Every structure is written in structure tokens, then in C-alpha cells.
Amino acid sequence: MTARPAAAVAILSSQALLLAAFAAAGRPPGMGAAGACAAAWLLVLWRRAPGATACLAAALGLSVLALLAGAPAWLPAAGCGAALVAWDLTGFCSGGERCPDEEGERALLGSRLRALALGILPGLALALALGILHLRLPFAAVLLAAAGALLALDRAARRWGN
Amino acid sequence: MNGKAAALLALALGLLLSALATRSGEVAGLALPLLTLLAAGVLRAPVPGGARLRARRTVRRDGAVGVAVAVAVRNEGEAPVHLRLADAPIGVKGGGRIRALLYPGAEAVLDYTLRARRGRFAWEAVRAVVADPLGLVEEPLALPAPGEFHLQPEAARLRPLPLRPGRTLPAPGSVPARVGGSGTEFFGVREYQVGDALRWLDWHSTARHPGRLFTKEFEQEEIADVGLVLDARVSADDRVLGESLFEHSVRATASLAATFLRQGDRVSLLVPGRAEARVYPGAGRVQLQRILSCLAGARARSEDALPDPGRSFVRLFPAGSILFALSPLDTDSAPFLLRLRAHGRRVVVVSPDSVDFHARAVGPDSLSQLALRAARVERRLTLLSIARHRIPVVDWQVHRPLDPLLRAALRPPRGGAGRGNAP
Q1: Given an 8 Å threshold on Cβ–Cβ distance, is A84 in contact with B84?
Q2: Which of A38, B222, B290, B417 sits CB 3.0–4.6 Å from A15 for a disulfide?
Q3: Cα→Cα distances B35→A86, A146, A160, B65, Å
Q4: Does residue A36 fall inside a structural domain?
């Protein structure tokens, strides 16, 4: 499978999960919004147009709305993970560079998918585990931990940049 | 950190702010995949200065298309490298870009073709970006791979052109030297001298003068100094329907240089202007390469008049040489051409017809046709004003072959001026 079909599958999966989340919450307008987001994202992928980040932002927003609407937590979380994969693969397809040969392109895509799995699955598992286990952490503690993680990441990235 | 990582960070922050606003731990949990993705990118980021890459460049002419460039980049390190490569000549847009996953010892080749008819191209380094597998943390590199290529203009093969310069050089060539000696063309008859070949005795003259012997003489053929002057003012670079008049002039100059050098003559070149280019007189294939390389870089410049060539001009075009000036001509060209004619030089102007060149793009309406007629009259007057100075002008419609016109312009007048006379 090449990158574009993989990206299309990821887009459709993410929006299907969100659609299912809104269906479970009984919110037809949310289902329509997920469908529209899928269509827009597929258009961005097809035309190699900019806008993948906006599509990801929309998908994340829909995930938040689905959660707030009372959908089971695993559906928006999985949709969010699939949206991340779709976002990355859309960027992978729309870049100006191409591999000189098909074999190289496949190797690169394989490496990218492995890296995505390694990067997203732990976070997704953690998010789902938090949802299932219902850990009784004070909200302020969760927020502090997340903000600390963000700050650490930012500092690490800046140090790398320098 | 690049834009992609920044977007990810911003979205994660947005989710956390949403969580704060809605006081929902599940919404905060949605930020976790984003954060772990970022963390994965940072953890697998390339070590600064750790990638050991070597680039090698090959450049060659790609038929009539342009220049084919291939840059091979080899991973000499011990870890796989996610790589993006971009390459283009200095000051040229375009070029080529690839991405690759390079395992240790593996090589990726970036090849692309620059579409051009001629030009000078130079490269210094290949732009490389080493990144983590997700492309979140990048390290830009410049891999040295210098190169230079002169895409020379095509030189058409013209038929030999008969030259009659004011002076020839004492070396065997194809230009009649107006001096008796060994050659192929009959030059005259003179009294026999000891050592003359008996087979060249002229029996008719000998029979008319009893007791005296006469021998035939042939005209020596030597080489000439030929100068080429290419008008590179922007007015010489008319462009119609994607075609350039200047390119026709450049190709004609290249063809003339190749023809005269093939005939054995010494050829020099001047491209006057602010970015003046000169090739001093020389002969042979090396000189042809010099001239073609010089023409490869010739560009039309925005200048109004042809500049004064100055005193050093004598070394470029020796006295008695014959000069070919390629210019569409305008009313200001005469002083420059007269200056060229100093020191006994002979000047022939090859003038690409800019009006005929434009005619293809002129509409059929009466106003356009009237303008075209006016331009033709103006050009005719310009050519006449040059011809009034006894400078022959070859009016060249660029889509027609040049050599018949040149041969006609260079043909000596009837009666064989300069030939020796029989006693």
C-alpha cells in the first residue's frame, strides 16, 4: 500500500469513529459534521492542498464535543489517534519530495507507520486506561502534569534546535 | 523544532485549555497521544552533527533538452538516516528534491534535468535535512558537492565562407593572400626562375617571347584574423511567442566561430557592454571551446548604446582583420561600427531582422499591419544609414539559413580585384 491510500483509510477511520461516537451520543448534527470533515480532509489529500492541520484541529474539536455529548470515551480517543495518523500521512503525501524508487518509498512509509504506532499507541493506551480505570486524580494535578510534560517537551525541542 | 511539531504542541495546548474550560479529565486525556507523539519525535531526533553523509555530483549534457544532474548521497555513518535532499544551481529556480531512508552504506541518487538551450550553471552544496522518522525534529545540513557546467550553444555547420580581409597571416589556410606562391587558384604568370617546377611552365607566354621562359604562379592561401562582435543589449533580446532573437544571434555567432576555426583562421570574440566578455585571438579546437563557453554565459543587458571599446581593442581585433558584428542595429549603432572599422579592419554586419521576427505575432487588423509597415520602413532606413558608411549589412530573417546570405555579402566584386596580372 502506498501513502495516499493509507492516508485515505486513516481519514475515513478517524471520522467513522467520531461518527460512531456522535451516533452513540445521539447527536445527528455531530455525525454530519464528522462526515463533512472527512470529505474536506479527503479533498485536501486528493488535491495535495494545505489544510491538513486545520482538518486535524477540526477532528480534535469534534472529539472534544463527542466526549462532552456523552459518547463512550474510547470512541473519541481512538478517533483522535486515527486523526493524528491521517494528519501525518497527509503531510507525508503532500510534501514536494518523492523517493527515487518505489522500494525506497515503501521502506520510508513502513518506517513512518512504525514510528507513528510507537508514538501514538502509548498515549492512546494511557488515555483509554485513564478512562477505564477512573483514576481519582485531582483535576489540578492532571493539568499540572500535562503542562509540565508540555514544558519539558518544548525545552527539549528547543535545546535540540540550538 | 519545525512547524509540524509546533502545530502538534499548539493543538495539545488547545486540548488542555479545553479540558480546563470544561473541567473534564477525559478531554485532557485526548492530549496524551499528541504529547507521546511529540516525545517519540524528540527521543528519536538525529544527534546534531552525527549524520555522516557524503555527496558526489555528476553533470552532463542531456541531448537537446538541457543539463542532466545527478547527486549521489551516501550514508557513511552507522545508523539509518531519514533524509530530505534539495539541489539547484546557484541563482536558478527549480532543481530537484527527494526524500529517502538511507541505511548505513546505502546511497540515494537525486537526479533532475535543467531545461535550457545554453547557460552557465554552478553548484556549491546539496541542501540536506536529517530528521527523526516522524519529521518533527530536523537538522539542516549543506553537503559540499561543487560543480560547474557550461551548456554551450549549438554551432550549426555552415558551408566554407570566402574571406577577403585586409591582411592575412603567414600560415597555410584558406584565405587568398594576394601573393603569388603555392596554392590552388591561378594568380598570374612571371618569368621563370631557377628552382621553379618545370610542370608549371606557361607554354603560351613562352611561345610568345622567344628565348625566355615563363612560369605560372598560384595565389597563396593563408589564414585570417576574424573577429566576432555580439550585440548583447536588451534591445537585441526581442522575445516573441517564447522565442528569443538574442538566442538566434548567439547561435549564429557560435556557428561562425566554428566555421572560421575549421577553416584554420584565428578567431576572437567581443560581447560588449557592462559585463563585457572577450576571447582573444586564437585558433583550433581549444579556441572554439573558449568561445562557446563565453557564449554560454552571454546575457542581454539593459544598455542603451553600444559602448566605446577603448584602446585595448587593438589586441582583440588586430589591424587588417575582418569583423562580423551581429546586431539587430539601431540608429545609434553607426559610431560603434565605424570605430570597429579603424586600423584597416573590414566590418560585415549580420543583422537579425527584428521586424520580421515580430511579424508572426502581429495581428491581422489594419492598425497592426500599418505599424508593421512603419517598422519595416524604419529598419530599412537604419540599414541604409549603415550601408552609407560602406559597411556591408546582411539582412537576416532568422528562420532562413545564414550562409547563402553571408557568401553573397563576402563574394569579391566581379573582375577579381587584387589578383595578379599576366605579363
Answers
A1: no
A2: A38
A3: 16, 9, 17, 50
A4: yes
DSSP conformation class of B201: B
> In which domain, by residue range, is A119 found?
3-135
- Which chain B residues are Cβ-neighbours of A53 within 8 angstroms? 7, 11
Residue B418 three-state SS: coil
Dihedral sign for Cα atoms in the order B345, B350, B354, B356: positive
- Quote the CA–CA distance of B64 and B121 in Å, as a whole number: 16
Q: Which domains does chain B have, with CATH numbers?
A: 3-43 (no CATH), 53-151 (2.60.40.3880), 168-173+223-410 (3.40.50.410)
Q: How many domains does chain A have?
A: 1
- The string of pLDDT tens digits covering residues B353-394 is 989 998 888 888 899 899 999 999 999 999 998 888 888 899
Chain A, window 30-89: residues with a beta carbon less than 8 angstroms from a chain B beta carbon: 53, 56-57, 60, 63-64, 67-68, 73, 76-77, 80-81, 84, 88
Grid coordinates given for B358: 515580430
Within a domain: A39? yes
| pTM reported for the whole predicted model | 0.72
Q: What ipTM is given for this predicted complex?
A: 0.88
Q: Please report how the helices A52-68 and B25-43 are oriented relative to each other, as an axis angle in degrees rounded to 10.
A: 150
